[in-house]
Amino acid sequence: MYAAVDLGSNSFRLHIGKHDGEAIRVLKSVREPIRLAAGLDEQGNLTPAAMQTALNCLKNFRTVLAAYKLDAVRVVATSAMRVARNSAVFLPQAELAIGYPIEIISGEEEGRLIYMGVANALATPGERRLVIDIGGGSTELILGRGQEIEKVESFSVGTVKQSLSFFIGGRVDAASFEAAILSARSHFEDAAPPYHPQFWKQCYGSSGTARTIADIIIKNGIGKEVNGATLSALKQRFIECGHVSKIDMAGLRPERAGTIIGGLAILIGLVRELEIPVVQPIEAGLRMGVMWDLHLRSIKRDRREQTVLDCVQRFHCDEKRANRVADDALALYAQTKPASDQYTRHLYWSALLHEMGMVVSHTGYHKHAAYMIENADLPGFTAREQKTMARLIAAHKGNLRKVAEALGEPDFVKAVVALRLAVLFMHSRMDIDFSLIRLRVKSRIELELRRSWISEHPTLSYWLEKEQEQWDEVGVDFSLRSTT
């Protein structure tokens, strides 16, 4: 049983679902209209009131989650948390409130998960499709075929900002709508060509915005599908109301009227700019994608594995060297007896990618690799995971002062020691018999090696002496003992 929590810019949502052998069936769904994006002040900070409202909701979600026996939980935050300048202050409080780590995901990762949710809800495996998701703070366009994504982009235009910026005080008129539509089109016009209809067979609207607009169109007799004509007709109905407070239409909850007008402007902008004939609403998206991702991880089909292998090939890493360092690093790490497996997989992936910076320069390649890992769009990885890997890669070579603030965590230190030694042994061209090595990492680092290895590999003693010096600089004693 899985739980997906989506901390969106407009609403916080929770899904609890169970895989029944073929599909994921939703057992529980909760939605709270937090309006987080509307709680950003002029400086881009979340206001105290907005943060408190969010924390109260997260505490309620924690109670809901506690009522189920869950195999995995994933909490993701999207646009509003991406742009909030004080998100680093709010995040620890939010994690404490809900009781789980919160991942602030990139727009591209959001798009990947949205597409995963949609693709698994459709019984058309080879279909070429465009998925559009209009959220409170951003809009994602994803082009794919079956389960495979071909292109994904995130645009910083969402229902909340569009509503607040163009429908001032809730006033709805023709001039405001046209300005909002033109603004939306301006975000998409440069990126539009790859998303035109000749590249896909069906367009799906995965967001609550698209589904709500479809409901309003059908339930109020405006039309039977979402297309340019019915969207324009709905726009005219809203204009005739004159104000958000006067909008009373079947399929639209009164509290959603204030943001749906901005969403309608964005959807019209997309339909016009991309020349979309029909948008098919679908009851699937980010939360379903998160649960499918958790399920696939549980059956050893982790998207992160493929991402790392793609990077190894794309950046021309020496696969033999990379695999050797990764295997040796895990063997050494196991000897240190870490308290948990928190760093195990990230250590392995970091080892595979530790030389990817050589495509930039052999000088300081570890710094280039660390920067690339932390800032690249890596499908399946969160920003926090990428930062962890970047730190490990930065720390595998040279001085340790650059990661000094992270050396207070014992398991991280053990991972760094394992990676540095694995690289050191690879450079010394040693074939390691790990039954003849003893590595302990507690308050100090203790390494036992066969005395014959030092004589057989002349550079080994030099590298080990340098290693002792590097650890000494950050106040960690590194002792080396040779055995017969």
UniProtKB/TrEMBL annotation:
Which Pfam families does this entry report, sorted A to Z?
Answer: Ppx-GppA, Ppx-GppA_III
Q: Any idea where the Ppx/GppA phosphatase C-terminal domain is?
A: 304-468
InterPro entries with a match to the protein in the record: ATPase_NBD, GppA/Ppx_hydrolase, Ppx_GppA_C, Ppx_GppA_N, PyroPPase_GppA_Ppx
Domain annotation Ppx/GppA phosphatase N-terminal: ranges: 18-296
Keyword annotations from UniProtKB, A to Z: Hydrolase
Q: Which Gene3D superfamilies does the record match to this protein?
A: 3.30.420.40, Exopolyphosphatase. Domain 2, Hypothetical protein af1432
Q: Which domain of life is it from?
A: Bacteria
State the name under which the record lists this protein: Ppx/GppA family phosphatase
Q: Which organism is the protein's source?
A: Duganella qianjiadongensis
